[in-house]
User: What shape does this take?
Amino acid sequence: MIDRSIATPVNLNRRQSAVSRLLSDQSLLDVIRVSLLLVAHILLGLSLSVAPSISNVHVIAVLAAGSWYALSQPRLERAAYLGAYITGAETLWRMTNADVFWETGKYAIAGVFILALLRTGRLKGPVMPFFFLMLMLPSLVMPLASVEESELRNQVSFNLSGPLALAISAWFFSHVKLSGPQLQKMFLALICPVVSIATIAVYKIVTATKLVFIDDSNLLTSGGFGPNQVSAILGLGSLMAFLLVLDRAVSRGLRIIFFLVSLSLIAQSALTFSRSGLYMACGGALLAVIFLIQDRRARFRLFAVIVTLFLTISFILLPQLDEFTGGALSKRFSDTRLTGRDNLAMADLQVFANHPVFGVGPGQTRHYRNPEFGRGYSTAAAHTEFSRLLSEHGVFGLIAIIVLLFMALQNFRHSRTARGRAVAGSMTAWSLLFMIGAAMRLVAPSFVFGMTAATILPESEPEPANAQPRI
Assistant: This one.
């Protein structure tokens, strides 16, 4: 029996104030929001694994939201979030056979960005992106007499939609100033659909009746879709999560979440057995570390993250993955032989030597390659954007490459902070590496390269209202 005469009364006001403090903790609320977003996209991935037709609903919802934001909200950073989401979702839509044309992601981003710029009246753009795009036009006349109109239209769309999206992205982001929280939201917007892609790949592995690993890309562990594209976008998601881990403005709870996300995505990228995704992510991460280490305040965190990541990968992740694949994973990544892209690039250069002025026109290189390359290389589409620019656009393509590299240097020099230089350097490295290995098959290299034109504000500056483009 309780002696009520001496019972201590409960201070309800104190209990309520403790709950209020807990609910007002911004870092805790951020952890909850991010966790819910990631869980929602895991559930989306599982749903698409069971019922791929849901992908059509997802496409409509995303594009409708993008159009609405661009037209009704005069805030460019929100259009940037949608662009990032579309970039991550493009491969998701392709692998679930959404009823959209192949280049939807590229045209969707170009459309959303143009609408946002028109809505805000930011029509004045930098010269270089438009000059880069204009250099593609002279070669269009080359195949007019020998190629059917429908085929030419398809080849122009396939080969020039990437440069178009890159030019529009660079124009758009030249007007954008991003604070730290805005940059984090944009990265998260891309990571979320990539988590859905990884979920589909895991589902395919778990439900497979038989898994066979050989020294080649694995379609099944890539979610039943092209391993090169899946590996690349998983690597990009992992890279962006890694950059968030290194960002000292991100709370400790969120850094733990993004650390686990980065590890999960890079592990799934490795399981595709397409090595390029891992190499692109590592190249971007290396550039970020080089620039962040110059910031004295970030060195200790950087060192701690790298050591933790190295120990986790070396002693936990890789041994587990190698055991799961029966040693095939280590064998695959120890194989340094190229997969034929070097032959394709050399064949393209030979075409350029034979047609140095205007090239042979978009998508026409395969008809001019020397058959001696064999093994399908003579008729395959280009896998290296730089050799494609030379063979299909001639000397104008050479100038376009120079302009592209000049834009990359200009955007890097424009960065005002260590974080800005790290983002610009890592994203430039990733996009150029992608172009070397997979041309512009995805919208990702266009969006990521364009993103380097944005101004990343110092931590002390408030969220921006306007920005002026660079010429």
